[in-house]
Amino acid sequence: MGVRPAEPLGDEDRGRLLHGAHHDPHALLGAHTVPGGVAFRALRPFARSVEVVAEGLRAALYDEGDGLFAGVVPLREIPAYRLLVTYEDAEVEVHDPYRFLPALGELDLHLIREGRHEELWRALGAEPMTHEGVPGTRFSVWAPNAQGVQVVGDFNYWDGTGHPMRSLGGAGVWELFVPDLGEGALYKFLITRPDGSHTMRADPMARRTEAPPANASIVHASHHVWTDGPWMERRGERPVHEAPFSVYELHLASWRPGLNYRQLAEQLPAYVKDLGFTHVELMPVAEHPFGGSWGYQVTGFYAPTARLGTPDDFKFLIDALHRAGIGVLMDWVPAHFPRDDWALAEFDGRPLYEHGDPARAAHPDWGTLEFDYGRTEVRNFLVANAVYWCQEFHIDGLRVDAVASMLYLDYSREEGQWTPNVHGGRENLDAVAFLQEMNATVYRRCPGVVTIAEESTAWDGVTRATHHVGPGGFGGLGFGLKWNMGWMHDSLVYVSKEPVHRKYHHGEMTFSMIYAYSENYVLPISHDEVVHGKRSLVSKMPGDWWQQRANHRAYLGFMWAHPGKQLLFMGQEFAQGAEWSEGHGPDWWLLDPSYSAEADHRGVRDLVRDLNRVYLDTPALWQRDTAPEGFEWVVGDASEDNVFAFLRYDASGSPLLAVSNFSPVVRHHYPLGVPARPAAWVEVLNTDAERYGGGGVVSPDPVKTEATRHHGRPASVTVTLPPLATVWWRGV
Questions:
Q1: What is the value of pTM for the model shown?
Q2: What is the pLDDT of residues 597-623, one digit of tens each?
Q3: Sign of the torsion formed by the C-alpha atoms of 102, 106, 109 and 113
Q4: 3-state secondary structure (DSSP) of residue 645
Q5: Which residues pair with 59 in a beta bridge?
Q6: Three-state secondary structure along 512-536?
Q7: Catalytic pick from 108, 287, 454, 688?
Q8: Residues 401, 430, 573, 688: which is the catalytic one?
C-alpha cells in the first residue's frame, strides 16, 4: 500500500521511551493521523518484523532499531487494526495497547486527587475488563514522583520495554490497558525513579499475590457467589454494645496447621458454633512476607494471604462462618508497614506512603515505617482499604491494631526525637483525622459493621462519636468498641498471685469499674498475653495443677460476668499449658481421649461452652454493658475473703448475681445482700462443677431470698461459695 518511513523519533523522546522514563508513550506509539496518511509505531523488543493488519490491509512497518517499528500508511482515518508480530520462532497477532483511550475516567482521577475515592480498588491496580470492545486488563498505579512506569510480568518475560504506561496528569496516576490479558497473570510495576534508576514493585492495590516468599501480584477477578444474605440483612439490627458479643480469636495459619481456607471452612464454623462464640477474630490475613510477624507487617493491604488459598477461597470461609451464624472480625494494621524494597517503602523513589520526615517515618519499636496520614492519597488508600474488606469480603468488624502508636507523636520516642504539633501538643493530629474519617466512612457505607480499637492509653473518646467534642478539644475517634487493656493487665496481675497475697491486690479487680463506662469495652485475653514468655492463661495461675485449672475457670467466669464483651485466644478455651507458637498452633493432642489428662482440658472447654450458652440466654450479661444502671456491687471490698460479688441487670430490671471466690477454701453460709425480689435464686453456672473438673461444691436447690438487710440492701441470701470458683445465680 505504499508504506513509507515515519518521521523518526527525536533522540530525547526515543531515549526516554526506551529507558522507561516517558510520561506519555501513547503520543509516540500507536496510530496517529499525519499529512498523507496514518503513522503507525510499535515497540516490540526482540521482534523480527511487525505488520499492521486490518480489513483489507496488511502493511509491513520499517525496523527503526531497538524494537521500534514504524511506517506511514496512506489511509484517511485510523482503522480498527491489529499487529502481526513475527519473532524468531513464532508469529502472533495482537491488539496494540497504544490504540486505546484511557480506561480510567475523569471522575476517578478527580476523586483520587481529592483523596475521596471510597472504592479506590476499582480505580487502581489490575482490573480485568472489556474496553472499547476488547477484553484485557487495565493497569493503574499511583506514583507521582516517577519519571516513568512500565508493566512487567510473565506475559512479557518481565521486560517492561514494550509496556510503558502513560501519566494521567496531576493525580500522579499511571495507566495502561493491555488487551487479551486476563486473570492469573503475574505482574509488577517497573518504576523509573527521579534519579533515573529503576525499582521493581509489587502493586500496592493488588487483590491477589503469589504465596511468600514469592511476591509478584496476580491479576484477579472474583467469581464467588455469596450465600450469606440472611446474615447480612440482620447483622445491623441491634447495636453491638447492646448485643451479645463473645469472640474467639485465632491465627488462621496455625489453628489447624496445614489447612487451607476451604478446609478451614469445613472445621472452624462447626467448632466455634459448638462452643457458642458469637464471633471469630482473625489475626491479620492481609498478605505479609514474614510469617513470624503473624501478619502485623503487611505488604499487600488489599490481598488475603496466598498461603491459604485465593481471595475467593477466603470469601468461601467467611461465607461458611456467616451461614453458621458466626460474625467475622479481622485485625487491620494501618499503623505501619515493612521496609521491603519491593513493596511500599519509597515506592516511586521518594517517601510516598511514609512520612517525608525520616524521624516521623521510622517506627521506633518495630523497624517499620509509619504512614503519612496527612497526605490525602495515603489516607484515601487506608480508608478505602477498610471499606474494601467490609464491602468485598463481608467482614463484620475491624479490630484496628496499635492505635496508641498512631495517636501520639512521642510514642516510644525520647525528648528531642519528636516535634510537637501546631498547638504544641503530643497528639498526631493527622492520625486523629484519619481514624475519624475511617470510622465515619465505614459506618456510613457498611451498616452493621463494628470497628474496635486496640488502644492502650486513656485517650479521651475512643468510642465517642466523631462530631462530639470532648474536654480535650477533640471529637471522638468514632470506634464502636475498645479493648480494655487496663482490665486485662490488672486482673491478670491479681490472679497470678498466690491466694494468700491476693488481699493486697484486691483493687486490681475492682478498679476497672471506676472507668467501666468511659468507653464501650471488650475484655481481651488475646494472643499478646500468651506469647514471649508471658505463659499461657492457665500457666499464669498459682498452685498445683488442680488449683491452676480452678483459678483458670474462676477467672473465665468472672470475665464473662464483668461488664464488657469477651475475647479469648485459641488454646485458652481448653487450658493449654504451653505458650502459643505460630509454628504448631494449639496443642490439640491435649483433647485426645487417649491422653491421661484429657478430661481436665475437656472440662475447661465444656465450661467455656456453658459460659457462652448461659451468656447468650441472659440479657443481663450483655444488654446494658455500657449503662451504669446495668451493674451494682454487692460486695467489692471483701479483700480478706478474696470474694467479689455483683449484680447485672437487663433492660427490664431482671438480675443475675455473680460471685467469685478467689480463695482456696469453701465459704459456708456466706451472706450477700440482694434486692427484695425475686423470691429465690437458682444456680445457672458454677465453675466448680465436677463436669468441668471441679470439686463439685454446687447448690442444686434454689436459694430463697430472706427479709434480712445486708450490704445495704433490703434482703439477702445465704450461699455456699466453692473454692477458687465463680458462681452465677439467676432470679426466679
A1: 0.95
A2: 999 999 999 999 999 999 999 999 999
A3: positive
A4: strand
A5: 52
A6: HHHCCCCCCEEEEECHHHHCCCCCC
A7: 454
A8: 401
